[in-house]
User: Which sequence fits this backbone?
């Protein structure tokens, strides 16, 4: 059996200009980055094209294949003669070299060349990292230069695109050894940087500059906010991002056009690709397949309550991806026997799928199809049980075999989705803009997560007062919590209910235009696993890479 990277090496790719032609792009619309990737001119007019959101049940250590299913669905729609474009996020180097490995899909549903996508791509993440750290340098320089802004408490952190737990807490010298002044500081991963969020929520270079200008970076000695505009470097930050704001054109191994742009994580950020890329895809194709990170309670909630609310978008249909072994894992099946038929565990764990169906269909009011990503060890009895369960909940379930068969293996799903797209569509938001921050968090935690109560710890309570005093209660909330459970406790599997949800801290993101609620044991700088994927990667004397999957 071929590995993912071997499959992409065998694929015969088209020149990226040919992929652009499928979307009606002209030569002047494309800036080539070699043969197989390009930056393109954004297209942001209103569109009547259909937007399909792909989300999933809670992730497990075994992988559910959300990106693989997104690619397979787009390839299947392409096979059915539809003008389709994917709109996905860029991978972060942290997970690529950590536990996840590559993020280009898998099997015969992949983006290619996968090395290009997973390793640096067009440099967007590096630009975001540099832009973020320019702001840090300007803050420390201001301190060194006699502190004219009277900076007292610094909110802004440096970032880098790697899982490096040692950088969570560091000591820095504010003005060099001569000053003898040190302070506690730390790094976030680039995907959690506010610059990443802003890039994905901006609609133009002018909008990007305005949002960057509005980033709150510190408080002065009187407790008043200090913004990037006060540092005088908003234009310089935008200069670093002038190319990064443009969407990247790529392709699947079946030559389906794909826009890959932005990469915020859904457990610590809002988990969606850029508004610019999504709207551009909607302008260039009749059907757009996009995804939101992790489970529906994280990525899909933020896609709707943050991205759709800000951009005036709505999904016309939603695909909920799951697997038999994911559901058995949520039913406390033995990990060592997760591929063995186990109807008891499946019956217990299927409540996890039910919770996500309820959220998407009943709470958000969306047209829904369940996609069961099939593996070779899945048995008919288990598949039929899931299908019958979905039918009882009023949704269709498609068996997806696109990992092994490419677009052909996603045709059943594509046909189900096309039927859902014929229905009227609308979206329900979980909270109102007029709700205060405490109410917004409580509504998400109780209505979507299933909590009985929300506990705001002392630091979070003090931040609520600060947010209110600054007049920021109108902002949406971006909840940072574990992706492995509906709750804030990664060990509460299945459909957790009746728990207390704890909010430890609140971070004000005036540039991105939301408030981050830090909950449970979530870290904004992840660490590497006991055996990182980096240990299995190899490169030979000819530069051929293996183990990147």
Assistant:
């Amino acid at each position: 059996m071929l590995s993912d990277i071997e499959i992409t090496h065998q694929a015969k790719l088209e020149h990226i200009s040919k992929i652009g032609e499928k979307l009606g792009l002209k030569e002047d619309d494309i800036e080539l980055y070699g043969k197989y990737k390009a930056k393109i001119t954004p297209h942001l007019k209103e569109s009547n094209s259909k937007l399909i959101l792909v989300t999933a049940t809670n992730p497990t250590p075994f992988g559910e294949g959300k990106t693989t299913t997104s690619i397979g669905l787009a390839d299947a729609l392409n096979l059915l003669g539809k003008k389709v474009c994917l709109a996905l996020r860029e991978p972060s180097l942290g997970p690529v070299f950590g536990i996840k490995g590559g993020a280009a899909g898998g099997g015969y549903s992949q983006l290619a060349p996968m090395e290009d996508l997973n390793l640096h791509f067009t440099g967007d993440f590096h630009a975001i990292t540099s832009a973020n750290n320019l702001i840090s340098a300007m803050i420390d320089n201001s301190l060194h230069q006699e502190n004219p802004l009277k900076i007292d408490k610094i909110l802004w952190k440096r970032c880098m695109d790697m899982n490096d737990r040692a950088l969570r807490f560091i000591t820095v010298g504010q003005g060099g050894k001569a000053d003898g002044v040190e302070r506690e500081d730390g790094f976030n991963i680039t995907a959690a940087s506010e610059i990443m969020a802003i890039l994905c929520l901006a609609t133009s270079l002018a909008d990007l500059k305005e949002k960057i200008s509005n980033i709150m970076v510190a408080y002065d000695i009187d407790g008043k906010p200090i913004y990037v505009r006060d540092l005088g470097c908003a234009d310089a930050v935008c200069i670093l991002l002038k190319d990064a704001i443009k969407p990247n054109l790529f392709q699947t191994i079946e030559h389906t056009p794909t826009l890959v742009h932005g990469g915020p994580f859904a457990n610590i950020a809002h988990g969606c690709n850029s508004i610019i890329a999504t709207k551009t895809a909607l302008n260039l194709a009749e059907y757009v397949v996009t995804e939101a990170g992790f489970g529906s309670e994280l990525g899909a909630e933020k896609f709707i309550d943050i991205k759709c609310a800000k951009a005036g978008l709505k999904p016309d249909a939603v695909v909920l991806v799951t697997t038999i072994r994911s559901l058995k894992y949520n039913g406390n099946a033995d990990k060592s026997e997760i591929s063995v038929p186990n109807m008891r565990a499946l019956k217990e764990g299927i409540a996890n799928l039910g919770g996500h169906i309820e959220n998407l269909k009943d709470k958000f009011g969306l047209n829904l199809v369940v996609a069961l990503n099939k593996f070779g060890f899945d048995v008919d009895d288990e598949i039929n049980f899931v299908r019958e369960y979905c039918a009882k909940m009023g949704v269709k379930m498609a068996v997806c075999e696109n990992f092994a068969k490419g677009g052909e293996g996603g045709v059943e799903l594509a046909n189900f989705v096309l039927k859902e797209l014929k229905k009227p569509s609308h979206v329900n938001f979980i909270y109102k803009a007029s709700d205060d921050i405490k109410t917004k968090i409580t509504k998400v935690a109780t209505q979507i997560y299933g909590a009985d109560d929300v506990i705001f710890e002392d630091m979070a309570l003090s931040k609520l007062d600060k947010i209110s005093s600054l007049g920021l209660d109108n902002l949406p909330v971006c909840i940072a919590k574990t992706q492995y459970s509906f709750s804030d406790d990664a060990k509460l599997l299945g459909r957790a209910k009746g728990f207390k949800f704890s909010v430890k801290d609140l971070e004000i993101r005036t540039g991105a235009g939301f408030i981050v609620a830090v909950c449970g044991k979530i870290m904004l700088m992840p660490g590497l696993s006991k055996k990182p994927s980096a240990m299995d990667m190899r490169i030979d004397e000819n530069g051929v890479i293996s183990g990147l999957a």
Notes: Residues 126-240 form a domain with the Domain 2, N(10)-formyltetrahydrofolate synthetase fold (CATH 3.30.1510.10). The first strand starts at residue 30 and ends at 32.
